[in-house]
Structures
1.
Amino acid sequence: MPPQRDPCPSSGAEIVDAALHDIPELVQVEQQCYAQPWSSARFEQEYFNPISHLLLHRSGTEIAAYLCFWHVDTEVEIHNIACAPAARRSGAAQRMLAYLRHWCGEHGVQHIFLEVRHSNGAALALYRKFGFSISGRRANYYSDGEDALLMQYELGRETAEDKR
């Protein structure tokens, strides 16, 4: 499949579909970002899953961020999004979400869902900035007992700020 292009070309970055050979680098970034990272086998499982999409935000030759989501009918569920520590505060995660919103619009998606740790203030702020709202809570969702907040975004209800 040819590389997907960033709908924000002024960013100087490229958003592409992951290839199988990208998995070792994805695992390295994942290990830098999470206390309980996905394994190489988990990334391979997502790579071969026909409803899963694994996108990379490349800045030069490095993976700055990645996004894994499932697309089923008119819904998308974000399963994993991470930004390499060296690329944090560079706008990479914002570009990934902007790209996803654009992709969803082109594929007839009406709702985007995700779960996020209750304590992850930076992620909550980013999702709220993009128009996500809290729709529920899953008690003791994570293996350490922390709750997950359920968030959703409805396409077609974007504000002018959301479209930036």
2.
Amino acid sequence: MPQRKGTSRKTKSPSRKTNRKPNRKPNRRMSAMARKGLAIRRELRGSQEVDRSMAEIADDDFLSTFFEYTHEACFGAVWGRPGLDTRTRHLLTLTIMAALGQAAGLESVIRRALRGGISREEMAEVFLRVYSYAGMYASWSAFEKASETFRLIDQEEAEGSQA
């Protein structure tokens, strides 16, 4: 096969570009609303958990974009609005997540709600309302995830008290 002028038979593998930039500081580029959201997220989830999750994505610009937007839009603009107290926000979040069948994210929402003063009994009432208005399977999924989360929390507390 004839070779074209200016080309070689050797093929170069495409360069692999990465989104990773070592020592990137996610807070450096955050908007004021994103910083507000990050502070609210720390209040809701605890600084240790937030620091752990931020460290996991700290040098990945692609994932950092998602978290910065989440801090700004979800925690800053929505959780930071006046008009509803934190307790009501927790109850609404539980309801919405359960009604949408978002079991994957429900564990962290349940943990935040418990830290925010929502009792297990109140969660059961929320999930029963989901049954009536969003369907049996959405409710059952939420009950299952809550039960699993309660067992994990009870186990963590038991292990913590033995230490």
